[in-house]
Design a protein that fits this description.
With 244 residues, this protein is of the alpha/beta class. It has one domain: Aldolase class I (TIM Barrel). Strands 3-1-2-4-5-6-7-8-9 form a 9-stranded mixed beta sheet. β8, α5 and β9 form a beta-alpha-beta unit. The radius of gyration is 17 Å and the shape is globular. The relative contact order is 0.15. The structure holds iron/sulfur cluster (SF4). Iron/sulfur cluster binds next to loops.
């Protein structure tokens, strides 16, 4: 696991404005701050450049002020929602950045697998918990996921998001969601990325569409009427290219 010191954040990339491509904020203009390092190694990870240590030379330790200067430059100083992603942004010290941005009227959404609970989750505007299903090869610790929900408390909008490749993943999403009945649920079809994505970031859109249809049928068949089923909009628009 890679973790920055308490005074700096390990940053993989900052880019935007673009749109949030998935989940509860889909379609919303945003600037991304993608941190480097992750405590997981999902078999289908689509952000390996923010995970594996072989890319570490591209990650930069940055102060809150340096990150904030880049975010405000990209957004032209006009407040918007900043998306904190990774890697696992929960292993970075992001509380100061959230406070800094709130002072300027910005909002913050963070997505994490829910493997680390951080007190500053309570200062977010949106917390997306995305427990990884069996196809990832990782194990979800429900107790820690529960800690994440508890530590966030009432202030942020907290939601669950699941990537679903197959029936086993779907059953996992059903089971985990049942533990947190108050949380809205977002499901998205899994994206088989490296391989077969090529240098241009091309993806198997037909396969994604097929899994999306299957997912809609599975939700309808189970009468799971509180679940939202969404594609990854950015993948449809730009494939798996970085920085969009
Ligand atoms: S938790 Fe996310 S960033 Fe980390 S390895 Fe899994 S998919 Fe990649």
């Amino acid at each position: 696991m890679t973790e920055a010191s308490s005074s700096t954040v390990l940053v993989c990339e900052i880019f935007g404005p673009t749109i949030q491509g998935e989940g509860v904020l889909i379609g919303l203009p945003t600037v991304f701050v993608r941190t480097g390092g992750c405590d997981y190694r999902c078999s289908w990870c689509d952000s390996l450049h923010a995970v594996e240590s072989r890319f570490r030379h591209d990650w930069k330790p940055m102060s809150t002020e340096d990150i904030w200067s880049e975010v405000t430059r990209l957004s032209g100083g006009k407040p918007l929602t900043v998306s904190l992603s990774g890697g696992n942004p929960a292993i970075q010290p992001l509380g100061d950045l959230i406070d800094r941005g709130h002072g300027d009227g910005y909002r913050f959404a963070l997505e994490t697998q829910g493997s680390r609970a951080r007190p500053w989750f309570a200062r977010l505007d949106t917390l997306v918990l995305s427990p990884k299903p069996p196809s990832s090869g990782m194990a979800c610790d429900l107790a820690v996921l529960g800690e994440c929900v508890a530590v966030a408390g009432e202030e942020p909008q907290t939601v669950l998001k699941f990537v679903v490749f197959d029936a086993e993943d779907f059953a996992f999403a059903r089971e985990v969601s049942a533990h947190f009945p108050a949380l809205p649920v977002y499901l998205q079809p899994g994206n088989h990325t490296p391989p077969p994505a090529d240098a241009e970031g091309h993806v198997d859109i037909e396969g994604l569409t097929e899994r999306m249809r299957w997912l809609v049928d599975a939700v309808a068949g189970e009468r799971w009427f509180s679940a939202h089923v969404l594609p990854q909009l950015h993948v449809m628009l730009w494939g798996n290219r970085r920085g969009v």
